[in-house]
Amino acid sequence: MRPMTQVCCGCSLQFGVQTIVFAHLGWCLMWIWMVTCNIILRIPAMAVGVNRPQQTVNAMWNLAGLPFIIMALWGLWHRVDVQVRLYLHYLVVSFSMHLVLIIYYLFVQDACSLLPSTLKYNGLAFACGVVRGCSIGVLLFTMLVQYYIGYMDNGEKAHTSSKPHSPTTEITQCHKSETFSATGPQSYVGHGRS
Question: pLDDT tens digit string along 131-160?
């Protein structure tokens, strides 16, 4: 499969990957802030319904991701593919963890059990159907977006690694095909010199 050369209907690949990395940085900082508010400062934030061990694991994973994100930004700006590749591996593991959590909440822990008790007597079946349908839609949409982002990051990795050779490499390649004498370079043809 060929690597991508542009994203989102004509934007450059570097712009697309930078957008993803900055969005991921915002996501990580948001989770770190929410967990800090909930656990350390005891100020209720958005993730109040999530238990503390899960919040702590989320905060640890997002804290561990900050160096990868900073490395990826440095690699994008300096056109070094190793840092982008390391970030891609971190991103794939993050996507896998999110996918496992979505599948867990969809199939293992019934999404209908998360509905408020006020719906128990009025419209529970309809609300349960909507929640399950939305869960499946979110699962499919998340898988599609994550595949696209991974494919885009892989394209940027291939794009950054196709930079010109260093002068040292060019000299080494030159020595393999030519010999130098006092009169200048001479190429080998057959068994004798020309």
Answer: 888 888 888 887 888 777 777 666 665 555
Q: At what angle do helices 124-160 and 81-103 cross, to 10 degrees?
A: 170
Q: What are the residues whose beta carbons fall under 8 Å from the beta carbon of 20, sequence distance 6 or more?
A: 149, 152, 153
90-95 contacts at long range (C-beta below 8 A, 24 or more positions apart) = 90/65, 91/24, 91/149, 91/150, 91/153, 92/150, 94/24, 94/61, 94/65, 95/146, 95/149, 95/150
Of the listed ranges 81-95, 113-127, 171-185, the least confidently predicted one is 171-185
Do 111 and 135 touch, CB atoms closer than 8 A? yes
| Both structure tokens of 56 | 């702590």
Contact (CB, 8 A) for 116 and 160: no
146, exposed or middle or buried, with CB in 10 Å at 0-12, 13-18, 19+?
middle
Condensed to tens digits (0 to 9), the pLDDT of residues 152-183 reads 666 665 555 555 444 433 333 444 444 444 44
Q: Where are the alpha helices (DSSP H) in 36-123?
A: 52-78, 81-103
- Tell me the residue type at 73: L
Tokens read off for 60: 């640890």
